[in-house]
Amino acid sequence: MTRFIIEREIEGASSLTPEQLADIARTSNQAVDSLGVPYTWVNSYVAGDKIYCVHETDDAETIREHARRGGFPANVVSEVANEFGPHTAELKSA
């Protein structure tokens, strides 16, 4: 599966309550279950008026279909080209 970053513009996102986030999570899980294809919601991050989600599936159109079924925006869907972190600094050059 391919990893994607999804940017969702939601006014007031940072003010959503834990209960509202739980409702969104339930809706997302139901949308995932309804797709009938391999799909993993990895995690989401709330920052200002945006929610950034990390999902894994085969293609961007499946991400957009998940958003349609869930009733939430997918303003930008970007395929992750690579991942790195602090441990990457310890890799030796070839």
Characterise the protein shown here.
With 94 residues, the chain is an alpha+beta fold. It has one domain: Alpha-Beta Plaits (2-Layer Sandwich). 31% of the residues lie in helices and 30% in strands. It is built from 2 helices and 4 strands; from the N terminus they run βαββαβ. It has helices at residues 18-35, 60-70; strands at residues 2-9, 40-47, 50-57, 76-79. The protein has a 4-stranded antiparallel beta sheet with strand order 2-3-1-4, with helices on one face. Strand 2 (40-47) and strand 3 form a beta hairpin. Helix 1 (18-35) crosses helix 2. The longest helix has 18 residues, at 18-35. The model has no long low-confidence stretch (mean pLDDT 95).
What is this entry, summarized?
Helix content is 31%, strand content 30%. The chain has helices spanning 18-35, 60-70; strands at 2-9, 40-47, 50-57, 76-79. A 4-stranded antiparallel sheet has the order 2-3-1-4, with helices on one face.
